[in-house]
Structure formats: C-alpha cells, structure tokens
Records
---
Amino acid sequence: MGHLTTRDAYKSLEERINWFTQGAPPSDTLYKILQVLYTEKEAKWVALLPVRPFTLKKAAKIWGTTEAKAEKLLDHLCEKALLVDSEYHGERQFVMPPPMAGFIEFALMRTRGDIDQKYLSELYWQYMNVEEDFVKDLFFATETRLGRVYVQEPVLVNDKTNHILDYERASHIVEEAQYIGLGTCYCRHKAYHAGHPCEIDAPWDVCLTFDNVARSLAEHGEYARLISREEAKEVLQLSYESNLVQIGENVREHPAFICNCCGCCCEALQAARRFSPMQPVATTNYIPKISLETCIGCGKCAKVCPILAIAIEEAKESPNGARTKKHAVVNTEICLGCGVCARNCPVKAIELERRPVQVITPVNSTHRFVLQAIEKGTLQNLIFDNQAFASHRAMAAVFGVILKLPPMKQALASRQFKSVYLDRLLSMQKKYDRK
C-alpha cells in the first residue's frame, strides 16, 4: 500500500470519507476521532476501499493480498463496526457505512473496553456541538434530508388513522423487516460520558436497526442484539410513553434505522432548536391543531415539545374589548408533526391533521443517495468511484433513478455528470414521454 506517515494515513481516510455524498468536514477533532476508531493500519486499509458495496475478491485485489488474508481483515473491520456485510445473490458483500447514521454512532451503541468511550464522547461533543460544521453539513447541505420523523400512531384518531400510509408507520417498518436489531442509544450514551446527561432520563436501549445492518451489527461485535417484531413494538411503545420522537432513514422502503430521540441529546433535534426555522429532518405529513375552546393553557404540550415549537400565549384583551384566554400556540413553520404534544394534552385539545402539502419521501437508499449527490454537486463522485460502480448493474441503478427525477434535477444531473451516455438517455426519455 506504499509508505504513508501516520498523518497521511488518517488524511487519506478523511478524504475517502468525504468522497461520499455524506462526509465529515476536516478538523483536528475529526483527526483525533479517527485515531480512536481506527488504528493507523486500519486507516490505510479503509482509505483504499470503495464507498459503495464491494466483494471479498475486489478488496483482495485493491489491497494486493490473498482472499484469505483480505477476509480476515474484513472480518476484523466488521467486528469494530467500521464495515458492515451482507449477502447479495449468494455472494458476501461489504460496505463502509457513512459517518452518520454509521460508524460514528456504531462506536457507542454498546459498552466496550477496547476504546476510551468517555474520551471519544468528549471528542464527539466538541465536533458536533461546539464546532458545528459537521452538523450543518449533515442536516442542511441538501434539500433531501438524511432522516425523517414518524408520527406517533397512538395519537391519531380513527379517521386520521385510515389515511396514514404504510411507510409513515414505524410499526409497518417493524413488520416488514427481516432482521431487527436493538442497541444502546448513541446520543444519550455520548451525552452521559461528555457530562451532559439526558434531561428527561429517557431509556437507552431503544435504538432500532433493520435488515442487513441489524444482522451485521449483531453478528460482529454485538453492537445490537436481534429481537422479534413483538419486542420491537414494545420498544416503540416504551418510546411513545417516554415522549421520544421516532426519526428514521428518509426512505419509504426498508430504512436502515429508526432512532427514538429526545430533544436534549439528539443531534437532529438539537439542530432543529439551534438553527430554527431550518428543519434538519423531513417532517411527518401531520400538523397539530389546537382547539382554543378546549385548551386550558396548562403548558404541558410546550414542556414536552422536543424542538420548542409550542408556546403558551397569555390571556389578553383585544382593542375591541374581547378577552382571549391563556392557550397554546404551535409554530407550524418549525413543527415536525411528531405528535408528542397531542399525547400529553390532558384535555385532548390537540389533534393531528394532514398537512396541506404532501411531504415527498425518496423510494429507497439509492434514490436518496442520487438526490443528495445532485443537490450537493457530487454526483460525479458517486458515479466515478471506480471500485464502487465498476459494474453495469450499479451504473444502471443510478441511471434508473436519474431518469425518474423531475426535469430540473435531470438537468442538474446532466451538467454534473457531463456524460454523453446520460445525455442520450435523457434525450430518449423525453422523446418517449412525448409519444
């Protein structure tokens, strides 16, 4: 792999991480984080790997070693949750997870003695809560968000329940998953070690992962334990009762995770508070409506709102002499539509209504990757990662997503990609649409 100094090894790793659509802005703190998570040799190995799924054979070729030695290295990296593995058409594949939800979180999803978790948590806190560049890039660099909020199903009245779509239900995601993993909440674990314990004393064992991610984390290093659908639904119920917000991957089909988040520890909800009115995650398709006749102005909804989107307006007299009573007011510009407020209203003065404009959710992870790459101007990185997109199958998947995009984003993709092949595909698509 050639001669690299220690600093060069981690710099190469940082550059490889930032080749992907979701990156990690370089800083001295990031360098220290990578030193905790990766040895110098591991940094050299991973820096050479594709950012998209690859096979054992591909890794051996890249590293210039035998498949037996490569598999041993890959297994070792999976055991540290720096890679996750899966099976595709009977062949084992590996992928480097993004920083978040990925290797940053995985490191604190269980108690472990091979790293200093307090020191790592303090570095995380500095990188995300003080320096902020990573959080701003993660949540606001693209129009298409990384995560989306799930509505709390129990608070929907019958007529609203009939209109909720399957992919809007956390319970449906649980039902559809082949594997379900349960791990420690990275956010509360980090905050505890960094000296900022959870203000509401929320439960820790509520982090849900699904399918290949869940299986890999459970099989390698016990970063999660596999649980049944019934157990997963119990986790959701416990989270509802603890006033936690469900935030999952922003896709309709087979999301990789659902976090159960508190406003004091979760980076996404903290970002919603700090950078209001910008929203770091996609909202639900619901918005709370408060009945002024019923509301008693007790303030419980404002107290439990995770992003401080509810205020209590004091009683006042209008110019015409009419007097209003004390009541709750929702800032609909920043409200996530989670439903925590409705659950806590003692007089049932809050109901959730469908938003007037439907929130659009990407179909799957590939769809989300391509949209974010176009919006961030990094589509060429996604396409021309030589190791990752060496096959026609992978290229076809990306092109297939692009062809289904609105014309404006197709034009953006074409300019970024600068590909005669893509231009011809788009031209053919337009001719077909006119027929």
---
Amino acid sequence: MIGVGAILIILAIKWEMEPSLLLPMGFGAILVNLPFVNAEAMHTLYNAGIANELFPLLLFIGIGAMIDFGPLLSNPKLLLFGAAAQLGIFITLLLARVVGFQLNDAAAISIIGAADGPTSIFVAQYFNSQYTGAIIVAAYSYMALVPIIQPPVIKLMTTKNERRIKMPYKPASVSKLTRILFPIIVTIIAGAIAPKSAELIGFLMFGNLIRECGVLKSLSESAQNMLANLITLVLGITVAFSMQAEQFVKVETIVIIGLGLVAFVFDTMGGVLFAKFINLFSKIKVNPMIGAAGISAFPMSSRVVHKMGLKEDPYNYLLMHAAGANVSGQIASVIAGGLVITLVENILG
C-alpha cells in the first residue's frame, strides 16, 4: 500500500492527474500503512467528514459555485445527453451482482460510473459498503484518466465523418432570472423524482444559486476557491484512512477497479450512441462526440471532446456544446445516484 500511495503521488505530480486529490490520498495511504503508526486523527476526521457524508455535501457547494449552466440553458436538450451517459452505472450494477457482490456493495460500486467523486462517497457511505476505499480510489483515478479512457472509445464508436460534424454555437440570451430560478427548480424536480438525491442536488444547486444571485459575490468566490480547495485537501487525506492494507489489499479491490473501467466505458458509449440515435431523426446533425461529454467528469470530458474535434477539423469548435452536455451530466449523475439508492432500498424492502 505504500507503493500504491507512491504511485498516486507520481500520477498527481508528474502527470498532473487530479493533483489536489490524488496527492493527499497518496500521502495519506503511505501514512496509515507505516508500521506502528496510530492514525487516530485520520479516523476522527473520517468519522466527522466522510462517515456522515459532510465533506461531499460541502464540496458540492463549491462545485455548484464553479459551474456555469449557461451553455445548458442555451440548449436545454443537452440535458438528455447527460442522462444517456449514465448507462455505465446500471450496466455495472448488474455486472457487480453477477460476479458475486452483495446488492448494497454492487450499488455502491456502480456509482463509480457517475464519474463524480462526492456522489461515489455519498452512496458508498449510505450503503455502509465495506469497499468504500477501493470505490473512492477507483472513482477519482478514472476521473483523472478521462483523457486516456474516452478518446479510444469515442473513435471506436464513431466514423471520421461523424467526428467532423460542425455545430456552430449560437448562444441564446439567458436572463438573470432564468439563471436564478434554474437551481431552485432543478432542486424541486430532482427531489420529487429521486428524493434520495435531494441532499446532494440541493447543495450543488445552492452553490450555483450563490454564484448566480449577484448579491453574494464574496461568498461565491470563497465557495469556489477556499471552501472547495480546503474540503478537497482534507477529503483526500481523510479518505486514505480506508486504504489500510488489511482493508484494501483484496481480490475484490482488483475486481472493483475493473468494474470501474467498465462503468466509464459504457458511460461514454451510452452518450455517443444516444447522439447517433438522435441523428437518425434530426435534420440538424449532432456531433456524436458531444454525447461522450455527458459524463460528470467536469470539465475534463468537455475538453477531451473539444480537442478531438479540433484534431479532426481545426475550425470545428465544440467546447460550448460539450460543456453544456458536461454540466448536464453533473446533474444527471446525482439524480442517478439517488435512483440507485431508491431502487436498492425497494428491493431490500
């Protein structure tokens, strides 16, 4: 496990993969696995911030304050791509059951496909999964690896001509009132559809409301910077408490990491296939790569799609379309997490 911690630190520093999280996670993994070390302080932090889901909720305020929903509000149909790109969650849930995981653990593992670290932590803790450490490491590691995972899947699912489809961006005017009402309405609707997601979506939208209301500029800036950075830092090193060797070094950990990859692949495939399906009936064609940006790994996935578009055609700017799908994935992933919790609870009675 000390070696695993060192690998996470190398990924963070040398390849700059989610450094704000992987670096403290790597250092924490080394710390808790040193012989004769009493990690009582980390245990206290774990109980205070992760076991009761406090850190994910606070982090969502910061994430919400960072997100500009303008591209999505300019083209609301992009919300469908966010929904389609959650396919990996439900495929992985079934596969996890097939390979022998208990239903609650399978549900927690499947949320790796949400491509959203706080949601993965929230669901894993909700189900009190014994594999929380492996789930969190897999979720954040694959988020960092989006630029490596998604391009080959996208190329496999699309033709060169499809990847060169141009989508001129004509932003619609989005009023301040619309921006203010959006987080409130989303919270109400999401809470009605998936009540178990109400906390997460509520804190995410509250952060966005702080951003858009126009009267809390200093609080918005604090949420985006100090709050988000501080919680991410503390979250990373605290999560490492669940990476003690006796808990982490198991065959199941390898299986979970494999299932996490499956989740990300099917998320990408789901979004691309949905875009191709839309193109069967639409006169104005959608670049199928936009569908891949529907996963919640914001803003990495939208950047990946934009760069791939420019590589195929240097005059094809897909960033705003991809960003709209990407932020819709942020909403859809939280709702999907709530739906999985509700589904599993109904099955378990």
